[in-house]
Amino acid sequence: MALYNLLGTTGGFDEPGISVNGGVMAKEWSINALRGAVPTLVEVGENKFAQRITATPTDTNQQRFSERTQNTTMMFAGKYYLYLVDVVTDGVSTANILIINGAGNAELAKTTASAVNKTHYLKYTPAQDEAARTRITNWAALGSTGWAQFDNARVYEIDQATYNKIDVDPAYSGANLAALFPYTEPPVIGPLNNLLGTRGNYETVSGLNIGSSAAVTIDSTTKTQGNNSLKLSIATSSSSANAFWGGIFNVFDKSKYYILLVDVKCGTGSAGWAYFDYFNGTGYPSKTGNKVTSTTGYGTSYLKLSPTELSVAQSAACHCFMSGTTGQYVNFDAMRLYEISKDLYDLIDAHPDFTGENLAALFPYRDGSGYVPFPKTWTSSDKLNAVDMNAIEQNASNLANYLKSLSITIPALSFTTNRTTTTVENFDSLNRFEAALISIRDGFGITPPDFRPRRTWDVTQRISFDDPNRWQTDIQALFDAAASVEKGFIYSGNISAGQTWTIRAG
Fold first, then answer.
1. Alpha carbon distance 244, 489 (integer Å)
2. Structural Rg of the chain based on CA atoms
3. How many domains does the chain have?
4. CA distance 217 to 317
5. Domain boundary among 180, 214, 236
6. Distances in whole angstroms, Cα of residue 82 to Cα of each of 54, 147, 170, 349
């Protein structure tokens, strides 16, 4: 089971936030109770920082603290939680962590002043449902100069058995406990690349396979995106019906993890759900999503796929399935199939943030390629920042993956998407990225009319506002050309008579 840090990424203290007192506090941490102390971000690794709070002789209060400005995920009565923070001081100052729980303070005793970095922790079970806040404090003597440093703040929900062992069982105490609960960040979601292309928008039923007891029409009266939804009906004497996209197996990497979702609204039918089956050489094992029964609005049915299923599969299909009686119907819309990480796979249906409609909100519908819109259109007065450059390279990576999903051979390429405000861009990195775009174009074998040639960079050149515009235009032009190719496959690549396989490139 993956650890899910309820503080998100903010406990890493790696992103600068507000400047104050000649220093800077990490993003999403408060500055209003520093009492004159100076916050600084201290580099502790490549692109990794810790938050230091340094006392000054003129501070107005011994308790110099910062709180995370956003509450954690809601904590619930009867649940069990573990707070951990890595702490080091100058060897004289003391420090602590504190939970502000809305009904009073639950406090961890002040740490012993130590120049040795160690993990301090606090176990906590709330008496009532509450939104708790995390506080880090420098307790240096008033009038002195001294610092306390914090890193890797994390909050985990734990079970009662683990809770009871903490500070009782040596294996669940001190450094041993810290090793059991290392710092993690929630798995990254996105950019979302719908491997079903545009099939799941149900603007058309072209290419859709229809089960023997089913009838389908396009319904413009109800939908969750676009102009239409799929209306699936039971056409014969049966208790169920289905319609499915087949011939999609080559979008899968058998070693990866996936999630399939579809929006469902019951008209007169009793339930609708997502369904996945695959041929393993002898039969058709299947996985069934949660059944949606709502008649007043759409709910989301989903299922997750792992290498356990995919490694033995020889073909696969993604279904809309319904139950009811003859003549009854259910509407489906926004079917999407996304690759996910192993950590995300483990969290689905195991953590409330990754369950039910909370999960559906994390995986909204996207058409096709997973292309992220331009960060902006640059002018001569603009400056290119790290976030913008990361977004441009991420789009290039999405483009390469999209073309691979169409069975187009693209060479292995490297993309940099983790720049920070301290990253220094050099001409080798720019040449790497320019060459990657050319490799993608050459692998695709199509040069769109809007595609402009690359630059070769050296130390004498500077980036102008036209360069990010050129990169973005080239990427979008290739995306658009690939989408046209995919649409051609969808409409012309289906065999309707005696069908065994659907010829499909993506």
1. 17
2. 27
3. 3
4. 20
5. 180
6. 27, 25, 16, 21
Answer yes or no: are the C-beta atoms of 8 and 25 closer than 8 Å. Answer: no
In this structure, the answer to whether residues 148 and 218 fall within a common structural domain is no
Q: Are residues 363 and 390 in the same domain?
A: no
Q: Which residues contact 361 (CB under 8 A, 6 or more apart)?
A: none
d(CA 122, CA 85): 9
d(Cα 142, Cα 64) in Å, to the nearest integer? 10
Instruction: Report which of 259, 278, 261, 415 is spatially closest to residue 339, judged by C-alpha positions.
Output: 259
**Residues 178, 84 contacting (CB under 8 angstroms):** yes
End-to-end Cα, the chain, rounded Å: 32
pLDDT of residue 129: 82
Residue with tokens 């249906």: 349
With a CB cutoff of 8 Å and minimum separation 6, the contacts of 500 are none
How far is it, in rounded angstroms, from Cα 269 to Cα 256? 35
Instruction: Please tell me the distance from the alpha carbon of residue 371 to that of residue 397, in angstroms, as a whole number.
Output: 10
Is 241 part of a structural domain of the chain? yes
* Domain end among 336, 368, 400: 368
Residues 301-349: pLDDT tens digits?
Answer: 999 999 988 888 888 889 999 999 999 999 999 999 998 988 889 889 8
CB contact at 8 A, 110 and 134: no
| Integer Cα distance of 230 and 35 in angstroms | 61
Closest CA to 144 of 88, 63, 62, 89: 62
- Structural domain span for residue 277: 199-368
β-bridge mates for residue 64, sequence order: 138
The enclosing domain of 113 has a CATH number of 2.60.120.260
Shared-domain flag, residues 147 and 284: no
Reported as a single tens digit per residue, the pLDDT across 202-238 is 998 888 899 989 999 999 999 998 899 999 999 988 9
In a domain, 327, yes or no: yes
Pairing of strands 299-305, 105-107: unpaired
Beta bridge partners of 48: 45
Cβ(298)–Cβ(272) under 8 Å? no
Give the Cα separation of 38 and 32 in Å (integer). 12
Q: Is residue 472 part of a domain?
A: yes
pTM: 0.60
Alpha helix locations (H) across 166-234? Answer: 174-180
Considering the domain architecture, whether residues 227 and 355 belong to the same structural domain is answered as yes
Whether 169 and 205 map to the same domain: the answer is: no
How many CB atoms lie under 10 A from the CB of residue 140? 26
Residues 156 and 204 in one domain: no
Q: Which residues contact 323 (CB under 8 A, 6 or more apart)?
A: 239, 240, 269, 270, 271, 272, 291
Q: Do both 16 and 141 map to the same domain?
A: yes
| Average pLDDT rounded to a whole number, residues 31-48 | 93
Do 342 and 208 have their domain in common?
yes
Backbone angles phi, psi at 292, to 5 degrees: -100, 130
- Does 277 reside within a domain? yes
| Edge-to-edge strand list for the sheet holding 286-288 | 209-210, 240-245, 315-323, 271-279, 286-288
